[in-house]
Amino acid sequence: MVILGIDPGLAIVGWGVIDYRGSRFDVLGYGSIQTPAGMPTEQRLAAIYDGLKEIIQKYKPDQMAVEELFFNTNQTTGIRVAEARGVILLCATKHGVPTFEYTPLQVKQSVVGYGRAEKKQVITMVTMLLGLKSAPKPDDTADALAIAVCHAHSGASRLAQYYNK
């Protein structure tokens, strides 16, 4: 199963594609879609859509896993990230990729074994689990790979829920 993990954002969308077969991970690609701060929001959203469309067309994922939105104290930032997340979900739907969502707590629990793990612990575990020579940069990319790993670990039960709706 080819899984596209996405860490949504407006400035940086982390992405990672893994192939998960019989409890074995193969990393197919990872990176980030970045949009400049001075660019109008609608152009940034279009750039995210176009970038994700290219990734979907290149890797042809069977499923996409996206981190659910976590609101901190800055609601303006949260709204912008929600807009980017909407574009990401739209792009997946338009290209026929089933989407599954996970909270940051679920991702950390799945990858590190502790839901309150620090970002550095997540990056270390992703690097180790996937057999990478170095930690993925930027951090959003490591988070996207962690989301893909989380889905691989819990995807069978989530997939059954999706198809039994």
Nutshell version of this structure?
By secondary structure, the chain is an alpha/beta fold. It contains 5 helices and 5 strands.
Describe the model:
The chain is of the alpha/beta class. The protein contains five helices and five strands; from the N terminus they run βββαβαβααα. The chain has helices at residues 41-59, 75-94, 104-112, 119-129, 139-163; strands at 2-7, 12-21, 24-34, 63-67, 99-102. A five-stranded mixed beta sheet has the order 3-2-1-4-5. Residues 159-165 have low confidence and may be disordered.
Q: Topology of this protein?
A:
Elements: E1 2-7, E2 12-21, E3 24-34, H1 41-59, E4 63-67, H2 75-94, E5 99-102, H3 104-112, H4 119-129, H5 139-163
Parallel strand pairs: 1-4, 4-5
Antiparallel strand pairs: 1-2, 2-3
Helix pairs in contact: 1-2, 3-5, 4-5
